[in-house]
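Table 4 source record.
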Amino acid sequence: MEVKENTISILVNNRPDVLARIAGTFSGRGFNIESISANITRNPEITRIIITTLGNRETVIKLEKQLIKIIDVLEVKDLTRVNAACREMVLVRMKLTDANQVKLMQTVDTLKWKIVKMDADTCILEVTGGKHDIDDALTLLDKMGMDDFTRTGVVAVELHK
């Protein structure tokens, strides 16, 4: 079976230690968490956790069955198999030089990125998009003098419930 990236949505009661138990389930099964994001839902007593991991369909099904057994886990859904919007964000610190500033500003304008902060020699950019969009942006920005970056985990929402 083909190994690919899977996006799993987990609804949990908003309690201490739930995330640690979920992470333990992944590590106990030999899965690496590629990305993770978590925040409360419209109901502050419930948290949605979005995790991406690599695996084939069979192993992800086994993982889902283990996750739903955890106390405080209310729902587990593989968003890879449904119509869902998945996005990431990256904040990038760029060193501005005479050599890169014009090209960087053109790229920001063309690709609709956002300048978060800017001074005489440094710029912080915000780039949002799908995983491949972010990967491509980081490759491009690295060639232009990227100094550092921080990347969120995937956030996702199902189109229809």
